[in-house]
């Protein structure tokens, strides 16, 4: 496993939303090695993520994202054949076939290789609490909801995933919702044996991913 990531946060102050976190690592699939960049929303309490909107996400290598799904390229989590090496978006980590994530009109049918401008996705069945944040020892203190896996072919130079994303969340069923926007940047460095280091500036302080 190799990788290094740094997150740069720019977000409005909130009692719960603290920005974004990323995790970077390698996977093997079909005899090839891929770089995986997982993206999470961060909270300082156990909130429930309802949707992602106005998402503008790209990688600085200009690389195509790798898809292993039924109808590709597609970002629908329910179409994933190999979730470990497939690029997809989601509200939480519900398994394919039971995942209630849907695409908003700016992301028609989850189609295309890249994330379109101002894309969005949401939990179409909020009572199932699929977007509930939980602790993640790999990412440090706080609570996290997974929102996307971005997989690219192994590269020989540092690769960075960055973007600006808005989110809606609440404290559970029947509670008022809040919205925030944050900016993130983290990446992968091809350095065998290196730890995947995560740093979060601004509201979220610093975090280290444990190997």
Itemize the secondary structure elements and their pairings.
Layout: E1 17-29, E2 32-43, E3 48-59, E4 88-89, E5 101-103, E6 119-123, E7 134-136, E8 140-153, E9 159-170, E10 177-188
Antiparallel strand pairs: 1-2, 2-8, 3-6, 3-9, 4-8, 5-6, 7-8, 9-10
3D architecture notes:
The chain has 211 residues and is an all-beta fold. It has one domain: Immunoglobulin-like, CATH 2.60.40. The chain is built from no helices and 10 strands. Strands 1, 2, 4, 7 and 8 form a 5-stranded antiparallel β-sheet that branches. It has a 5-stranded antiparallel β-sheet with strand order 5-6-3-9-10, with no helix packed on it. A hairpin with a 6-residue loop joins strand 9 and strand 10. The radius of gyration is 16 Å and the shape is globular. Mean pLDDT is 84; it is low at 1-13 and 193-211.
Q: Are there runs of 5+ residues with pLDDT below 50, and where?
A: 1-13, 193-211
Give the strand content: 35-45%
Q: What is the H-and-E element order?
A: EEEEEEEEEE
Helix content: under 10%
- For the termini, the CA-CA separation is 9 Å
Number of helices: 0
What is the CATH third-level topology name?
A: Immunoglobulin-like
Helix-strand category: mainly beta
Tell me, rounded to a whole number, the average pLDDT: 84
- Give the total of beta strands: 10
CATH level-two architecture: Sandwich
Class, according to the CATH hierarchy? Mainly Beta
Broad shape: globular
Largest sheet: 5 strands, antiparallel
Number of domains: 1
Radius of gyration using CA atoms only: 16 Å
